[in-house]
Amino acid sequence: MSREKIKKIITNKIFIGIIAILLPFIIELIIFNKIELNLHTALRIGVIYAIYVLIGIYHVLKRYSDKLNKIAEILLKYRFQIAGVALIVLVLFKINMSSLAKWSIEINEPEISNVIIGVPRKIRSDDWLVQSAIMLGQANSDNGYAMYNENIGLGKINLLMVSAPVADIVILAKPLMWGFLLFGAEYGFSFYWMLKIIALLLVSVEVARKITKKDNLLTLVGGLILALAPAIMWWFSSSIADTYIFGMTSVILFSYYMNNLDWKLWKKIGIAIGLLISISSFALVLYPAYQIPFAFLMAIFMLNDFIPNVKKLKKQDYILMGITILGIAGLIGRFLLLCWNDIQTMMSTVYPGNRIEVGGDFTINSFIIYLGNIFFPYTKGISNPCERSTYIYSLTGLIILVIYSIKIFKEDRKKPMFTITISLIALYIIYLIWEFVGFGEVLARLTFMSMSPAFRTHLVLGLIGTLLTIIMLKKFENKKIFTKAQAIAISLVVVLFGYVMIKNSSYSTYFNFTKIELSAIMLFVITYFLITGNKKAWCYCMCIVAIIAGATINPICRGVSPLYETKISQAIQEIRINDPEALWAGSSNITGQYLIANGIKTLNGVHTYPVFDWLEKVDPEGTYNNIYNRYAHIHITLGEQTEFRLLSEDAFQAILTYEDLKELGVKYYFCLGEISKDMAEEFKLDSVYSNKETNQYIYVIN
């Protein structure tokens, strides 16, 4: 190569480098006509430089793609062994992903924290406030693992119906709870969280492996996208994540069975046991709002495996399947036998009660907020990010590829993924109709969709959209449907359309210029690489999006110190030792649940359904039935007249008199805030613990 050519190349690279360095400032001048020194400007400029870095990393990774593929092969080959070792190590170190640290903040002792990395979130109250308190309260109580714990709801709340460990055969259908019975409270709590995240990752990888036909890169990245989806991570401790884990585990195990009918009997028995546990677990999640639309998705996958292989089934398979079905029926039957009365009580509540949904109430506003999911873990402005969480994928890019697929459907009819792809597209369209048009009451009841509000169905719709996106990317990998110019033009139109939608939505104030800029970049790249079939670039970008939007939602923590190493907990335990049978009340749902978590017999807290034993004593005529007949966070305050006030759809305040408390047998009252002298005299209260610095008070009622 001549000196002139080398000089020309160097000169060109230097020129490009200078332009690249100046580009962020040029953009600022073009858009704002000036460069202001503030946080937003720094962020916008930093984003462009960050993109340069990410592009550089991508090119480096491309050079080592062969080595990365080998690493991916090893990870996939030994995935179960790696998962097993990880589970053991993490549980030994008592690692969990709960926002439990919110407890010490709420009770005014923020210095007690168990967070290693991340942010405990108040919005995750179904985790730290409800489920974790009940799980740990059950494990730390003197009642053992009884189905009815005397500390919770006067022993009238059936704990088989919530996320709690119970010593009954039905616990086979609640594998996340096994750790409590085997290892005790703290290790059991860690086992619950670590088994959950590891199972989530494993099953997501298996699903991606199934739909990509064992493409290593798409399997790992697809699994990561499915597992870290905001729709799962914001609901990680809830029934939504449980439904996904157990539902998809059932799909994968059934697929293994039907596609490996020549396996030895002992392997088939192992899968049958797994199916017995996973299908029973799915059924006992008890959240039809999400289970019903998810069940149709499961049916598509399972029928796709069953129908082509049904003729290959032998007598041995039919016997094994029959035994498995009987086992599932036995566990579910046992559950119904133990819980039927409680289920009826729950179904007759005002909330959630027996609601009838007909669909058709979803809006475009709710549909486009998926663009905001990358900001939810880091910014405020959205009142409830959990309810607005979803899956992130390019809807327009997916539609383009699906439409293009119609041209080549004839060629694909004999391919393995044809039926499942068509079925997923059909289900996607049906759910869109349910969301935006509705079915009418008769059809809604016939399909059981009457139990699924549109905003819950939307989570399953997003899952289907993500699955279809992965399928289409695999299908059109390296196939040039569009020229680069056409792909860029289409992607820009998609971005422009997204911008118009955002500016005309109710979220326009949430999306400032910086958020719009980042959303535009994200939407452009995931659309462009999808419609050009650039699998590696798409996977790289989606990895970044998945980590940013999902991986930082839940904190990484160690132990349960925010519940048991606080001053107030120690004070509560001292009283408990001297007076173990006493009934307590908390001034709020917070104090009530804190007492429950500490193994205290508590009147209030969070009740899955009403405990009429005490409610009817203070309201014998049922005047306030519509207020307390619900799933509720219960606040108890002291007053001169008995009264109930509805605070929200799932919360009420019980104002109780001195006579009410004495009739109910309440002896101790725990509150965050000192009670006035007049009130203390009226209720004959004596302080047994007070800390003005933390504003914590415990009173005995004489």
Account of the protein in words:
The relative contact order is 0.10. The chain has 31 helices and 11 strands. Helix 9 (216-227) runs parallel beside helix 24, helix 11 (239-258) packs antiparallel against helix 12 and helix 13 runs parallel beside helix 21. The strands form 3 sheets. The protein has a 4-stranded mixed β-sheet. It has a 4-stranded mixed β-sheet with strand order 5-6-8-7. By secondary structure, the protein is of the alpha+beta class. A hairpin with a 2-residue loop joins strand 7 and strand 8.
> Helix/strand/pairing class, anyone?
alpha+beta
Largest sheet: 4 strands, mixed
- Specify the helix fraction band: 55-70%
Strand order of the largest sheet: 4-9-11-10
Radius of gyration: 28 Å
Envelope shape: globular
Distance between the termini: 98 Å
- Number of β-strand runs: 11
The amount of beta strand, in percent, is 5-15%
| Unreliable sequence segments | none
Mean pLDDT: 92
Count of individual helical segments: 31
